[in-house]
Amino acid sequence: MWRSQRPKCGDHGNTMTGFKVEPFQRPEFMVRLGLRPPYSPSDIKQAYRQKAKTAHPDAGGSAAEYTALHDAYEQALDFAKFHAGRSRWIGEEMELYIARLAIVTAVESRGGYVTMQRIEGLRPWVGEDFGQIKDKLIAIQWRGKEVNDESLASLIENQQVLSDLQHLDLAHSSVTSDGLLQLHGMTGLTALDLHDTPIDNRGLEAIKQFDRLEWLHIGGTKINWRGRMKLKLARPQLHVATGTSKHKHRR
């Protein structure tokens, strides 16, 4: 299990403030992309493509280097869009923010916990309030028998913001394979704890779609030895825990 904390969502009743940019100062993400003003989305995309050719692990770069480059690319696009049309940018991002907030509210109101990742790179340029709406939902811990397939409705209805989710802990819950199969969009999931749940072999179909999954706990589930063997053959690099004792997973 990883440590999870409640997000600091701030006072949603406050009026959002404007932004302030220091003259002649380049944001760190623009420096990483090697760009100078003026910044346009086309220039940003071109710079990213060029640097990705050498930064990608398949081209000899490191995973950390490529992740940092991709983060800079996303922040640079947000920066450019913000300056090109602040109202439109806020409207588009606010929809995603509301979707994240719906998940956070549903989980916390039923005894669960979430972890939010602050996106610091944009804050000096768009302000704390605007920067907050870009924070990522990266972990959900939602345990207990009262957590069932119906409880997952908030996640299912707002799957467009689940791509940033890295850790999902549903241990000791009543979530079944039917519920798990409805969860899509978790393309960044690296750790999944399902121990002591009624998940059976059908749930493996859902697990297969999580391409980046590195750690999985299925101890105490209804997944039999045949299902576990198929999983091992299909995902040999995946670390699968099968014990029923308490397991701690560190991020």
Automatic annotation (TrEMBL):
<dbReference type="InterPro" id="IPR036869">
    <property type="entry name" value="J_dom_sf"/>
</dbReference>
<feature type="domain" description="J">
    <location>
        <begin position="28"/>
        <end position="81"/>
    </location>
</feature>
<dbReference type="InterPro" id="IPR001623">
    <property type="entry name" value="DnaJ_domain"/>
</dbReference>
<protein>
    <submittedName>
        <fullName>DnaJ domain protein</fullName>
    </submittedName>
</protein>
<dbReference type="InterPro" id="IPR032675">
    <property type="entry name" value="LRR_dom_sf"/>
</dbReference>
